[in-house]
Design brief:
With 418 residues, the protein is of the alpha/beta class. It folds into three domains: 181 residues, FAD/NAD(P)-binding domain (3-Layer(bba) Sandwich), CATH 3.50.50; 114 residues, FAD/NAD(P)-binding domain; 52 residues, Enolase-like, domain 1, CATH 3.30.390.30. The protein is 28% helix and 28% strand. A five-stranded mixed barrel has the order 1-2-3-4-5. Helix 1 packs parallel to helix 4, helix 1 packs parallel to helix 8 and helix 3 crosses helix 6. Keywords: Cytoplasm, Disulfide bond, FAD, Flavoprotein, NADP, Oxidoreductase, Redox-active center. It comes from Hortaea werneckii.
Length: 418
């Protein structure tokens, strides 16, 4: 069967937050003929297996912590209410499905044509979209945005497939009794914290002595120490060599850490060791679009690739910010430039804040202390720090009080906060 041929001003490949924001602005605000392609569920990582279900789960974990803390304020719980993971999971899934529907209605409202299928370049201006029924649509576009996002990585060790990734975390129907989380980035730290707060015995395997290593050393040290104080088992200087299937849902993890070699029987193993761009099926090579050594599409501050009419943003590009609000802002700015007559419209990638929903929560903006010293020189840097016990903990025993810390990094005679 011959493919259906379509033409448009703007083809957006990827139905995540950034791609949809750009498509909707191009069509809804500027009248461009836009087509959006997605092969999974609308909303991308954030809505389906990222920020949204993560934050809902973090809310549940925070409630569990609050109930435990409430005893210090005089509340007499005869017993802590058990957490019904299965019921919670199904309610969370229903909420995400509602968001999927809202995203599709928003596309319709802004007159963006939506194709549910898998995109693959056939030449630099043409993309074949294989629809769910197996038929093909050939789309020729004046401008093409690649916003396909990324996927979690799995290590190359025997039995690695017995573990799950952050995607699988949201598919768990029952609460694990004992979990091993491998990774030291924000995804690993958030999920380990949620597991622990909800009552799962949690083991966290990290390669060094602290985690969140892209953050300031103060953050690394304080949060690592707090996780240990709370009772999360942190295996430092660790590596994993093999995973065995023991049957009945149990696995045996073979590892090495600062205490030597060991094994551990667990019912859930979660890999959170990084993410890679979702480019395998896109046939991007036919376009000659350049990628960096990690497989991300090279872009400038205007989201341009080296091919004049092809653009990229979000997790698939090399700007270094895998954050939903960043992708949304970049997508809207791109459409302002391409279709709104704003020739200089682009996202300013400097001083973008980030938050980690760990326990306690971390917020950061600007340079870390080592980055500031390298950029400005030691003699130009002045550091202000403050550590104290928040009033929330005033009713609690000393051993139950969590840390609160702030750090300001200033540069130059004016002591500009950097």
């Amino acid at each position: 069967m011959a493919p259906v041929n379509k033409e448009c001003d703007y083809l957006v490949i990827g139905g995540g937050s950034g791609g949809l924001a750009s498509a909707r602005r191009a069509s809804g605000m500027y009248g461009a003929k836009a087509i959006a392609v997605e092969n999974k569920r609308l909303g991308g990582t954030c809505v389906n297996v990222g920020c949204v279900p993560k934050k809902v789960t973090w809310n549940a974990a925070a409630l569990a912590e609050t109930m435990r803390d409430a005893k210090a304020y005089g509340f007499d719980f005869k017993e802590v209410a058990p957490f019904d993971w299965t019921t919670f999971k199904h309610k969370r899934d229903a909420y995400v499905r509602r968001l999927n529907g809202i995203y599709e209605r928003n596309l319709n409202n802004d007159k963006v044509e939506y194709l549910h299928g898998t995109a693959s370049f056939t030449d630099p201006h043409t993309v074949k979209v294989t629809l769910d029924d197996g038929s093909d649509v050939s789309v020729n576009a004046k401008n093409i945005l690649v916003a396909v996002g990324g996927h979690p990585n799995v290590p190359n060790v025997p039995g690695a497939e017995l573990g799950i990734t952050s995607d699988g975390f949201f598919e768990l129907e029952k609460q694990p009794k004992k979990v091993a989380v491998v990774g030291a980035g924000y995804i690993a730290i958030e999920m380990a914290g949620m597991f622990h707060a909800l009552g799962t015995e949690t083991h966290l395997f990290i390669r060094h002595d602290t985690f969140l290593r892209t953050f300031d050393p103060m953050v690394q040290e304080k949060v690592t120490a707090e996780y240990e104080r709370q009772g999360i088992h942190i295996h430092k200087q660790s590596s994993q060599s093999k995973v065995e299937d023991l049957g009945n849902g149990m696995k045996k993890l073979h590892y090495k850490d600062s205490n030597g070699e060991g094994t551990m029987e667990i019912d859930t193993l979660l890999w959170a060791i990084g993410r890679s761009p979702e480019l395998e099926k896109l046939n991007l090579d036919v376009t000659k679009v350049e990628k960096n050594d990690k497989g991300h599409i090279k872009t400038d501050e205007y989201q341009n690739t080296n091919v004049p009419h092809i653009y990229a943003l979000g997790d698939v590009c090399d700007r270094g910010f895998e954050l939903t609000p960043v992708a949304i802002a970049a997508g809207r700015k791109l459409s302002d430039r391409l279709f709104g007559g704003q020739a200089d419209a682009h996202l300013d990638y400097s001083n973008i804040p980030s938050v980690v929903f760990s326990h306690p929560v971390v917020g950061s903006i600007g340079l870390t202390e080592p980055e500031a010293r390298q950029k400005y020189g030691d003699e130009q840097i002045k550091i202000y720090t403050s550590s104290f016990t928040a009033m929330y903990y005033s009713m609690m025993e000393p051993e139950d009080k969590g840390p609160t810390s702030y750090k300001l990094i200033c540069a130059g005679k004016e002591e500009k906060v950097v």
